[in-house]
């Protein structure tokens, strides 16, 4: 649970009385927590701040680590692979940002930073826009799905406008949707599955 003064309260269910502890994420007065993301094992926590900083906290420590490679992006969604997460590592995760970008990374219990690589950008697709004739835009509609199976540009109000209208407000939601699709395809490839 996050507090207004940039701390989290963590409960330890493994102790007899299930005691709680308060952990300070950032000492800067202006910092506030935007969102928290906990992996399925309950060991890896991401505390994402409104200012575009992200901190990592493992269940075995009380010292959060600032993720320098993640600086400057406001995280809106994180997709964990529940079949591969362990106490020591999240393995591959997909991160959706407010700007509509998707990154792939992993988290290790020792705090070592892994690459934070861009894998898809909705904002760049939407900036191309269109006049509505390619399936984008239309009155409140979504564009048609392209050959990769990922949703295209935003549906603007009125008669078209791929990037206009409601695209900006929807970018975060689309990032979550694409992150789920990407993680599903990544998981299928890892486990040798073929899905239609």
Automatic annotation (TrEMBL):
InterPro entries xrefs: Pep3/Vps18_beta-prop
Chain positions covered by the region annotation Disordered: 122-167
Residues making up the signal peptide according to the UniProt record: none
Biased composition (Gly residues): 129-141, 149-167
Domain Pep3/Vps18 beta-propeller intervals: 1-124
Superkingdom as given in the UniProt entry: Eukaryota
Name by which UniProt lists this protein: Pep3/Vps18 beta-propeller domain-containing protein
Organism: Ectocarpus siliculosus (Brown alga)
